[in-house]
């Protein structure tokens, strides 16, 4: 019976064949222990000299790291194994013998591992991170599908920008200038006026010359947009969504979280509702703790971390000054100097994972914002049309996938949370 490592539990005490790679091995004279992986998981294959043909044991002893093979054996329950099972090997068929595999079980520097990212992905830790990323994506589709959202795909090549044209990648679109998208939000607002509740999931690009552990040049965003919804209602959707993906990861990625040595008690606390503080309260809190920051300044990583440390679950910071936020955010009805927005700050120093707001729905006010931000009316006329033809209150937000993966996995740098990271000085592999 041909199967995969993730499915071996169905075949206890039965003989199965698995296509696998040799991740590692050790032997003690009469027994060879093969650490096998097949993409779905890891399992130990035990080859006992006295129980197999001489040729099989010789093959097992000579196997090299990352060689590919078909392994046939009997599935045994084993409580000590991370997967709960091991394989008593009866025969091997080598497909390809690898030689001089560059990533050995010793320590390697980050640059070396990044140069070999195409191979580093095979390691147990990187495998675990990718599986958690996949679960977050699966749970994202589940949440929005179950809550009446339609998936809409905004363009990646755009003629304008959601937040001004700085930090954008320019390209030629035949005879016109174009940009790689930094957000699908403006297009999602148009989609929400057609479909009510929508979400997008796709790559976004920021030409920021930043080297921090929280930044990537190319990253993936989940961007929901909702018609007939105010800011407070949007916050409820956000906390329910983040709670849903956290609980899904806890439920479906137990082996991966164990491989990552993640303290799951911290993720167990991620359940709605989340605490909310205003920007004013956050500034006051930081000043009391000795941080040099004035009202009107944006928060940096140390500020976000200091605020997050006071809570054991994500915290919303609401109502930032209009001056430091995007042109499309709706002013607070009682305090026009601040806007109806919120950033969601993850615990444990992972920073902002969501930015969201209620959008301006008044045509004249949006025109005024165009003037203040020197935005071309020609380029943004279509966006203004959304306020001209049946405008409604609407809100939305964007969640950065890689920061969320980093937080849920407990890994320090976002470069490990995307298969092939694009960094300031890295376009290879």
Q: Would you write up a description of this structure?
A:
This protein is of the alpha+beta class and 429 residues long. It has two domains: 2-96, Nucleic acid-binding proteins (OB fold (Dihydrolipoamide Acetyltransferase, E2P), Beta Barrel); 117-416, BirA Bifunctional Protein, domain 2 (2-Layer Sandwich). Helix content is 31%, strand content 26%. It is built from 13 helices and 17 strands. The chain has helices at 54-62, 110-115, 117-120, 124-146, 185-195, 231-252, 254-259, 264-268, 279-288, 301-308, 363-372, 377-388, 401-409, and strands spanning 2-3, 15-27, 31-37, 42-48, 68-77, 85-96, 150-151, 157-158, 170-173, 176-180, 197-205, 218-227, 276-278, 315-318, 341-346, 351-358, 394-400. The strands form three sheets. An eight-stranded mixed sheet has the order 7-11-12-17-16-15-14-13. The chain has a five-stranded mixed β-barrel with strand order 2-3-4-6-5. β9 and β10 (176-180) form a beta hairpin. α4 (124-146) crosses α13 and α11 (363-372) packs antiparallel against α12. The radius of gyration is 26 Å and the shape is elongated. The model has no long low-confidence stretch (mean pLDDT 96). Residues 130-429 form the Aminoacyl-transfer RNA synthetases class-II family profile domain. GO terms for molecular function: asparagine-tRNA ligase activity. Its EC number is 6.1.1.22. Residues 243-270 form a coiled coil.
């Amino acid at each position: 019976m041909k199967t995969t490592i993730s499915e071996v539990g169905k075949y206890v005490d039965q003989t199965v064949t698995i296509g696998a790679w040799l991740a590692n091995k050790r032997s003690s004279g009469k027994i060879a222990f093969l650490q096998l992986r097949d993409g779905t998981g890891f399992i130990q294959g035990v080859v006992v000299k006295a129980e197999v043909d001489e040729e099989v044991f010789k093959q097992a002893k000579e196997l090299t790291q990352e060689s590919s093979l078909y392994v046939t054996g009997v599935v045994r329950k084993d409580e000590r194994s991370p997967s709960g099972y091991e394989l008593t090997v009866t025969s091997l068929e080598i497909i390809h013998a690898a030689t001089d595999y560059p990533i050995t079980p010793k320590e390697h520097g980050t640059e070396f591992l990044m140069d070999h990212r195409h191979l580093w992905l095979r390691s147990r830790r990187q495998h675990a991170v990718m599986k958690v990323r996949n679960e977050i994506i699966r749970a994202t589709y589940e949440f929005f599908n179950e809550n009446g959202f339609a998936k809409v795909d905004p363009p990646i090549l755009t003629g304008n920008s959601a937040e001004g044209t700085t930090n954008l990648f320019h390209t030629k679109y035949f005879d016109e200038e174009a940009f790689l998208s930094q957000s699908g939000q403006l297009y999602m607002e148009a989609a929400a006026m057609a479909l009510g509740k929508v979400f997008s999931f796709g790559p976004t690009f920021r030409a920021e010359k930043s080297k921090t552990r929280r930044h990537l040049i190319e990253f993936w965003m989940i961007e929901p947009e909702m018609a007939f919804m105010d800011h407070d209602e949007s916050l409820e959707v956000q906390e329910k969504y983040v709670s849903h993906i956290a609980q899904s990861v806890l439920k479906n990625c137990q082996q991966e979280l164990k491989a990552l040595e993640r303290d799951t008690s911290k993720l167990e606390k991620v359940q709605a509702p989340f605490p909310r503080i205003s920007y004013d309260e956050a500034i006051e809190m930081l000043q009391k703790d000795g941080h040099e920051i004035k009202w009107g300044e944006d928060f940096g990583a140390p500020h976000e971390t200091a605020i997050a440390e006071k809570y054991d679950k994500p915290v919303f910071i609401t109502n930032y000054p209009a001056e430091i936020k995007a042109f499309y955010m709706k002013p607070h009805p009682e305090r026009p100097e601040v806007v109806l927005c919120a950033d969601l700050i993850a615990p444990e120093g992972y920073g902002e994972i969501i930015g969201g707001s209620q959008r301006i729905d008044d045509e004249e006010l949006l025109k005024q914002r165009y003037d203040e931000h020197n935005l071309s009316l020609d380029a943004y006329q279509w966006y203004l049309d959304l306020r001209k033809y049946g405008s409604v209150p609407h809100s939305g937000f964007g969640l950065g996938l890689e920061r969320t993966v980093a937080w849920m996995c407990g890994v320090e740098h976002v470069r490990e949370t995307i298969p092939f990271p694009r960094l300031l000085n890295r376009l290879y592999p």
